[in-house]
Specification:
Helix content: 40-55%
Number of helices: 8
Pathway: Carbohydrate acid metabolism
Largest sheet: 9 strands, parallel
Strand content: 15-25%
Keywords: Carbohydrate metabolism, Lyase
Pfam families: Aldolase
Order of helices and strands: EHEHEHEHEEHEHEHEH
Protein name: 2-dehydro-3-deoxy-6-phosphogalactonate aldolase
Organism: Halomonas dongshanensis
CATH architecture: Alpha-Beta Barrel
Shape: globular
Distance between the termini: 11 Å
Structural class: alpha/beta
Number of domains: 1
Length: 205
């Protein structure tokens, strides 16, 4: 079963995207997002989708408009991650049969996202909400709702977040920073995966 982790490759270039993504995949992370504020993100997404479609769910982060959803879909991406909750973005993602992970902080945003058809919810920034704040939101969500924490979550606090009730995590700078080699990213990915599994995070949901 796929690990409930999303690799966030913010700032990756089209030239580095495939070797970095392969290193992440080798560690067991099969959901990969290229944020749209990266260099030539649609080129990277197209290259990854062409090469890895059968092995990974590839898509975009920092998706803010329905037009961007369509652009990602045209490039072969099937995963849409946003920092905010825009029902129109969620609805367009679902219309195109793409996975949709909008960013939420409040219960109002969470229920707006679920009403629009979100695949799961991205608690962002998790470090701002904190574990106790997350528990309060989690308590009112439908039981089957998938909740991933993004922003300030990593190997040092996986255990606490998992115990608090998150199903998965998005991994950004702890996994990848621009300029890092595929080998370095692979080592970081393996460390993060081992830490997640040690925290009882083998599977999500």
């Amino acid at each position: 079963m796929t690990l409930p982790l999303i690799a966030i490759l913010r700032g990756v270039t089209p030239e580095d995207a495939l070797p970095i993504a392969n290193a992440v995949l080798d560690a067991g992370i099969t959901q990969i997002e290229i944020p749209l504020n990266s260099p030539s993100p649609l080129v990277s997404i197209e290259r990854l989708a062409d090469a890895l479609r059968s092995r990974a769910l590839i898509g975009a982060g920092t998706v803010l408009t329905p037009a961007q959803v369509r652009d990602v879909h045209a490039a072969g991406g099937r995963l849409i991650v946003s920092p905010n909750c825009r029902p129109a973005v969620i609805e367009e993602s679902r219309r195109l049969e793409m996975a949709s992970w909008p960013g939420i902080v409040t219960p109002s945003e969470a229920f707006d996202a679920l009403d629009a058809g979100a695949t799961g919810l991205k608690l962002f920034p998790a470090v701002q909400v904190g574990i106790e704040g997350m528990k309060a939101v989690r308590a009112v969500l439908p039981a089957k709702t998938l909740l991933y924490a993004v922003g300030g979550i990593g190997e040092d606090n996986f255990q606490a977040w998992r115990a608090g009730g998150v199903d998965g995590a998005g991994l950004g700078s702890a996994l990848y920073k621009p300029g890092q080699s595929a080998e370095q990213v692979g080592q970081q990915a393996q460390t993060l995966v081992r830490a997640w599994q040690a925290a009882g995070g083998e599977h999500g949901g």
